[in-house]
Amino acid sequence: MRTTSFEKKEIHHMARPLPLTAALGALALISTLAGCSGEAERSTAEPIAEPLVATYDGGLYVLDGTTLDVVADIPMEGFLRVNPAGDDAHVLVTTNEGFRLLDAKSGELTETTFTASEPGHVVPHGERTALFADGSGEITIFDPHELADGKPEVTTLSSPKPHHGVAVVLSDGSFIRTEGDPDERSGAVAFDSNQAEIARSAECPGIHGETVVEGETVVFGCENGALTYSDRVFTKIAAPGDYGRIGTVKGHDDSAVALGDFKVDPDAELERPNQFALIDTAGNRLQLVTLPPSVSYSFRSLARGPHAEALILGTDGKLYVIDPASGDTVKTIAVTEPWTEPDDWQQPRPTVFTRDHDVYVTDPATRQLHLVDIESGAVTKTATLENAPNELSGAVGHEHS
């Protein structure tokens, strides 16, 4: 593999008083206690072990993550997206109405919905989960450990303009949200727990994708590299050239390096990238790594392994296990048949989902779901589903601290 390193450019911003309009906006923060609105009955059966949720054209499968058995098949219409809610029992299903709560451990869809105009990103981190409504710019924040009792108390924040955005809440109550409007996105703003502005950066055009790495450093993808936030400071890590888009990033608590996709053609309807990015937030460097010739990947190919390994499922059907520090491939595991990324991003393609030591890979062409052991380099279980799986997620969280 070929690697190239590029040095960083730092941006320091002093905290400054909020202008009157921003201060009034901060005072408009809304906290509401929403009662339990028709939560579905809990199943009396045994809880589903390590529940997984796979979407298909017409509904959801809830699977036992240890056996890969389908425990529940839930019919639902429309294009469905699934994300961890932030605890060890629930998954949020994105529908046209908002974010609907699925009790994955019982295999039951509840009546609880966080309504949102054009629901977008879901970001669970620590003790808070943040939901972003692209159509309004509204951010909904809640403690996911309260989900077992119904709809939790929520804090609602607003963005100046609606956009395809994201927000992340840190352990001290501070938060970062993106800046933009329906036509373009420019960067991010950080606020303390009292909603006073800490810092901002407008050096992340097309900001998209977020993750948190070691030291609670937040990483965003940009059309010209990456933007990080740590210790009240935004730092720009530039990509080579005028255009080097990172739109998907994956982090791990035990690594200062984020894994990102990397695209170089601003005019491509669909670019099938052959390079990926390793974003070193400790050294503030961006390293580009090239996959073998003719091998590309999609935005659902990226994940992190149990020991912070960077994982990429290539179109050759192999799972590449990569040392995030060096960029070297330490192992390849044959998982699926060769595949081609579809033109429509909503169409199924192989997807990687990781949780602790478990690595799951879908193969829509064969309607299969595989469980991969990174240490042994083997596929240890395979299940064939009735319908081709599309998105894959699961309950990922911890007990309340």
UniProtKB/TrEMBL annotation:
Highest taxon of the lineage: Bacteria
Annotated transmembrane regions: none
NCBIfam families attached to this UniProt entry: AztD
Protein name: Secreted protein
Organism: Mycolicibacterium smegmatis (strain ATCC 700084 / mc(2)155) (Mycobacterium smegmatis)
